[in-house]
Amino acid sequence: MFTVAALYHFTRFESPEALKAPLAKIACAHGVKGSLLIAREGINGTIAGTREGIDAVLAHIRGLPGCADLEWKESAAEEMPFGKMKVRLKREIVTMGEPDIDPKARVGHYVEPQDWNALISSPDTVVIDTRNDYEIEIGTFEGAIDPGTKSFREFPQWWRDNAHRFDNKRVAMFCTGGIRCEKSTNFLLSEGVPEVYHLKGGILKYLEDMPEDGSLWQGDCFVFDQRVSLRHGLKQGDYDSCHACRRPVSAEDKRHPDYEEGVSCHRCIGEYSDADRDRFRERERQMRLAAERDEAHLGRD
Questions:
Q1: Residue 292, φ and ψ in degrees, nearest 5
Q2: Quick check: 222 and 135 in contact, CB under 8 A?
Q3: Scanning 65, 186, 270, 290, which has the fewest C-beta atoms within 10 Å of its C-beta?
Q4: 121, 108 in Cβ contact below 8 A?
């Protein structure tokens, strides 16, 4: 079994570029794979490896400026869910595109998983899923509003267009692990919303802590690794991913006439050119050949 650690932390890095190489070096030295994003506002990502390897990388991150109180969420995977280790420099660790947003200044009220059901069941509370449309499609909380956004960058404009619908309501928001809500709750507070709440630890913490028979979660939770989705108890779901667009695909989706393994699904068939699909077919062919030779191939990462 591999340990998977999902983490984020908002802190001020004066020279994020100086942190990249040492972080990549210690991860690779311990066989840890995954993706970490570094920006001036902090660090975000998911990594997987042995217990020893994950502990080594987390210890290194806790030693970075302002990261001593780093928190993370762990789950398990029977197979390594990443093909390689990537450490990238970004303008934002989760892209919202609102330059004045500062989660370190203030955020909404954190709600523990055991208190979440009561909050979102209250008639004076509106519940908003801050994730992307393809994530929401395979699972969300009962009664939650789907903004229909294709990226988190679209959320501020969606709120400005729809804020009038939620007058005199408490707003409760949630996301996969909590990072998007750090920014979205700060944003709503800056827009003048008086009562804003968010699920502490995100959906992953809720699925870990809440028994299924007392849960208001419906479906699977999309995750950005090769496991694709998780269920209660953080058990892996049955979804695969389209290797062209990375959206989740079910067994039923694979029977759609537009589905071709490694090349397209019914959601992305119109998003790529014939030349793109030819390239995807060649990538898939090379991966099959590598598998036959029992060799690693990193083409999908």
A1: -65, -30
A2: yes
A3: 270
A4: no
3-45, pLDDT tens digit by residue? Answer: 999 999 999 999 999 999 999 999 999 999 999 999 999 999 9
Q: CA-based Rg of the chain, rounded to a whole angstrom?
A: 20
- What φ, ψ does residue 294 adopt, rounded to 5°? 60, 40
Nearest to 266 by CA among 287, 301, 242, 285: 242
- Which one is catalytic: 67, 175, 265, 268? 175
How far apart CA 51 and CA 26 sit, in angstroms, is 14
Quick one: CA torsion of 18, 22, 25, 31, rounded to 10 degrees? -120
The residue type of 90 is K
Whole-prediction pTM value?
0.92
Structure-block tokens of residue 227: 């496991």
Q: Are 140 and 222 in contact (CB under 8 A)?
A: no
| Token couple for 16 | 């994020």
Q: How far from the centroid of its chain's Cα atoms is residue 91's Cα?
A: 17
Pairing between strand 109-111 and 196-199? parallel
- CA 180, CA 191: separation in Å to the nearest integer? 16
Tokens of 209: 């802590």
Q: Is the pLDDT of residue 176 over 60?
A: yes
Comparing CA positions, the residue from 145, 197, 214, 178 lying closest to residue 73 is 178
Q: What are the Cα distances from residue 185, in Å, to 35, 177, 189?
A: 25, 14, 6
Close Cβ partners of 8 (under 8 Å, ≥ 6 residues apart): 42, 43, 44, 45, 93, 94, 177, 178, 179, 182
- The tokens for 146 are 């789907």
175 among known catalytic residues:
yes
Tokens of 123: 């008639």
The residue written with tokens 């870990």 in the block is: 208
Query: Tens digit of pLDDT for each residue in 182-191?
Result: 999 999 999 9
